[in-house]
Amino acid sequence: MDVTEMLESASLLVPEEVATENDISVRDVWDYLAHDEWQIALSLLEELGNRQPLPLTFWERLAEAAEQLGLERSAAWCHWRCSEIRNGMIRADLTLRPVAEARRKTPISGHGVLRPMWDIGNPSPTGGASVSIAGLWVEDMPVLEPGGRATVRLVPLTPAHWTHIEAGQRINMHEDRTVAGTAVVLEIHLPTTAMLTRGH
User: What is the DSSP letter of 21?
Assistant: First the structure.
């Protein structure tokens, strides 16, 4: 598949009634595709995909197209959205500890590179605290500085560990034994398979 075919294939998965805040719909995407404006079409499809849940195939096609166009940031975001569909996503308000109180002295990448550990209240077999790994994407910011605060998206490595999480819950982020930051859960969207394991 070439870029045009991938973007056309993705656009067919978007309901015609879905529109961006600027009232741009999939019809506008088709106009851009007809004029080989692939990058604009890709950007608009990403925006439409952020308006309502779309199938995994949609994001896979966009990721492939972004890679062929050499758009690393778009490709990373589309692959991230694929991970969210497979493993679920938790949105949270994260505040990192300041430099004076934490081991980290440098900003964290906002684009899904970091996979820190989270204390989400699960006990370990020995009775102590257990941690669960989740990837981290910072919304609307390329990096998050120590002491900074931002809305983040977490993709659990093991969704079944997160089924007890509730909005308003505070969870701690760890990169080692010390607390690197604290987050307040805003939304939980776990896949059906994880929901089936709730309480087990």
Answer: T
Question: Closest Cα to residue 119, out of 104, 105, 134, 129?
Answer: 129
What is the C-alpha separation between 96 and 40, in angstroms, rounded?
35
CA 128 to chain centre: 29
Do residues 117 and 66 make contact, with C-beta atoms less than 8 angstroms apart?
no
Hey, what domains does the chain have and what are their CATH numbers?
Answer: 3-86 (no CATH), 88-196 (2.40.30.10)
Cα gap 136→141, rounded to integer Å: 12
Identify the three-state secondary structure at position 34: helix
Question: Could you tell me how far CA 23 lies from the centroid of its own chain?
Answer: 24
User: pLDDT by residue for the chain (200 residues), tens digit each?
Assistant: 799 999 999 999 999 899 888 898 999 999 999 999 999 999 999 999 998 889 999 999 999 999 999 999 999 999 999 999 999 999 999 999 999 888 888 999 999 999 999 999 887 777 767 899 999 999 999 999 999 999 999 999 999 999 999 999 999 999 988 899 999 999 999 986 544 444 44
CB-side neighbour CA atoms (13 Å) of 94: 29
Give φ, ψ of 62 to 5 degrees.
Answer: -65, -40
